[in-house]
Amino acid sequence: MRNSEEIHFLPSTLETVDGGLYRWLDETLNLHTKTNNGIYKVPVLWLGSERAWQIKNDQRIRDKVGKLILPLITINRNGVVKDPNFKGIFQANIYETQDYRGGAVPADRRINQDKTQNFQNNIASRATDNEQQTGKNSENNQIVYDTFNSPIPVHVVMNYSITLRTEFQQQMNDILQPFITTTGQINSFLFTKDGHRYEGFVQQDFSFSNNTTNLAEEERMFETKVDIKVLAYLVGEGYNRNKRVLSKRENAVRVRITNERRILADKVPWKKKDDDYRE
């Protein structure tokens, strides 16, 4: 059976890491708490999106006058650091191939069954008397591989801040405790997006900013900030890349060198002499 499966390779970008962490917070943790209306899933709001889109996308986060409805979780990316000491598995820079394909490191390799079959049929036709091209033959070492190369991954450290806002202390306890207990005795976790995997670390300090000590007429609110550091990698230049993110190359299985030949006009058997044209 021929391998007709297509390779879907999506590059790792800043937006990929943002979406992966957002999905981990919204779907994996899936934080709930108790409200007057029963068990309530706490909405997760990405602060980088437009306010008009936020209001239209999820109408639960604001009331009729546009005021935020608590409890609520917001996430924001604070910064990106490219540390030279954080290189991942590539301890040296690898330049891309200087052609229109590009690519630096192999990302996947598969057998090209069409071209490998041509070599196998050639071996079978020589090994049989009737020159058939199928059947059991000797081992075929002439295998053609399709190697898919991608640019070298650039490792970065991305810092995020997650803010938890509630009206009651019990609600804050409900949504804060999973950040402490989900990872167990360690502070690291893994999340994926578009086939890429990243590692996040929940920082050990949880800063509280509550106004419970203020006895004025201001609305009471509990606020806790959770910092997360993500070790990620970026591939390619995104929309600014003028080459393919995944380039395809084939290996050479046989090298043939032809012999040098010298053809003389007087020794060519099919060329007639001038005397042959005389009557």
Descriptive notes:
The protein is α+β, with helices and mostly antiparallel strands and 279 residues long. It folds into 2 domains: 14-88 and 154-234, STM4215-like (2-Layer Sandwich); 105-151 and 242-250, no CATH class. It has helices at residues 14-29, 51-57, 113-127, 169-181, and strands at 32-35, 38-41, 44-46, 72-81, 105-111, 145-150, 154-166, 188-193, 196-208, 222-234, 247-250. The strands form 3 sheets. The protein has a 6-stranded mixed beta sheet with strand order 3-4-7-10-9-8. It has a 3-stranded antiparallel beta sheet with strand order 5-6-11, with no helix packed on it. A two-stranded antiparallel ribbon has the order 1-2. It is elongated, with a radius of gyration of 32 Å. The mean pLDDT is 80.
